[in-house]
UniProtKB/TrEMBL annotation:
UniProt feature coiled coil, ranges: none
Similarity-based family: Belongs to the DNAI7 family.
Protein name: Dynein axonemal intermediate chain 7
Record field: compositional bias (Basic and acidic residues): 276-297
Alphabetized GO MF terms: beta-tubulin binding; microtubule binding
Organism from which the protein derives: Phyllostomus discolor (pale spear-nosed bat)
Amino acid sequence: MQVIPTTEEARVKHEKEEMERLEMERIEKEKWQQLEVKDLERKNEELEELFLLERCFPEAEKLKRNNRLLSQWMHYIQCDGSPDPSVAQEINTFISLWKEETDETFEEVIAKSKLVLHLINKLKLTLLETPPHDLQDKDIAQYRGSILEMQELLHLKFDVATELLLRQASTLADLDTGNMEKVIQDENVTLYVWANLKKNPRYRNIRCSEIRTAFEIPRILATSDIALRLLHTHYDHVTPLHPVPTSCQLPTSMESHSVKDEANNVEGAISKEFQEEYKQPENERNSVQEEGIKVEEQGDTETQMDSTQEESEDTKYKLEMKLLSEIVSAAQLLLLENAAERTYFFEENEVDIFQFTSLGGVYHLDILELPPQCKPVKGWMIMEILKEGLQKYVYPPATTEDLETENAFPPVDVMLEVHKNVIFFENPTIARWDAEGKHWKTDGISNVFYKSGERLITFSLEIFGPITLIQDTHINMPYQSWELRPLDENQVRLTVTTVFTEIHIQIKGDLCMLASIKLKNKSHYSILEGKWMTLYSFIIALKEVGLNIFPTAHSHFYVVTNYKVPLVEMKAYRQMSLLSPAFAFGWSRWNMQCGSNNVVFKVSEHLTNEEPIQNSNWALLMFNGDRAQRLKIDEHSEAFSEAVKEETEFHSTVYHMVKDFASEGAMEKVRSSDCQFIDTLCHLLLSIRLLSYS
């Protein structure tokens, strides 16, 4: 028979449970306060040790500065005839001389374009790689101006070469069709030109099997003196250049100002001290008897001066490194800053360049007026050269009053081959360039059909001009998970898993490489695999093939993010990079629930490459920028809790938190790591933003 407790017994039981709960809370609070006091006692010591370790960042910055200067010097002593694009006089001379060259064939322009593209890419990398504090506004304006001028001149040269080719169309006519067809291509450019010499109204289906391109033209074009040109540039010189961060955008702190003032004061004091050491009283110069005394004093003075100089040089170096450390931190923080609001507005059908990215280059589709053909006369070739140069055929014409039917100017059906190196995770969208508005638009294009297996896209085009294929910039965001693990010395592998793909990136020294990618759990070969590149070249290359995992300041407007305070996020990436030679890090589901002031991630000591990391070896850390703690929960716990794991303590840094359970071998590996490797990895983590975009 079940005994039912009385009301009094239930009340007593409830009071007992409440007292036990309050006692547990008191004990936990006392323990927490003790941990806080202990953490506060050693905070300065830990931060000082971390500061010494983080000197690798300003040291790496100094090395990069030296490498930039060395690169300029190596270019100077090579004397290979190519200009230094960063020197205004050299690049302006190069552009002026090329403008004067006339009657270049398409093959000659393509050959020259390799150097031009190299110079453009070199300037773009200079703008990206040079930190804002080392770039003056006038340099940015000069570099951007040179880039735009070379881009425009290159396209003009292609137009002139096309005109030269079309003048000879009659001599290059196909024997079967009587029309001219020409294909010229290299790794950067593909040209297809078709000249309508016969004007046969029944010849409306134009196909080129060599580059898998086709046009279905209306009757009015089939009977006109026109040429069709497809100039596929595998690069994009149409989309406007993105703005470059300037030094005025760098966050400044009172500390950096005080460091600058301190450096200036020390330098002034040193200078004054040396001046007084060298100052000699005038009466010494006129006294022979005091010469011996002066020599002895001078010897003592020189000894003191050498000692003072050594101390001052050491002080000056420390201040220089502290100032450079402030500047580097501010530049890193700038990479994590989100735009406060949208300051841009787009018209109807205009492509949002912050949301979509052009991939696979630009297809310049043009209907051209056929220029007068060269004629053989008594062994000479007579050629009429039009002053206006290459002219575009206006289709449809501005006025259509003389035409009986409204459908006399139907759209032209086009088939194009998608660039083999580009990955589209969804069917691409086609956009056309609006020359008046200077932006991409999606109107005037219909009947789009994409054959992903054959990599062919067909569509109907109303208005000819540059077109491109666009994809959502953030299609691989947010990430589903990530893992960073060490390999050999100064070498790690970063794995980022998204909805569509799994990307494996290898970092070695100051270089990056795409190790492998998987699409829908199947291996997929990319042309980038196995190619070591500098960080910014690598980021650009990944974006260009459609593997964009690099958020911008505007990305949070288009992606559901897990917002983290930028300073906390930056400190986490810096310390993860410092520890990466001997520790693996991984994604944690609790990072979504710990709030914007905290980050949570997994960490495990990992010294052997071959061994997989067991789930039991992962420790769960939470960090708020000022305190690191090991959590009691694990990935399989039912709810999030900030409770500290038994027998662990608070620390002011992730480095010291990990040090508590790390082996001496692991910490020695961390302390002996290369500064350029740490800096490169940190910059990559700052660019991918694993903690706020997964």
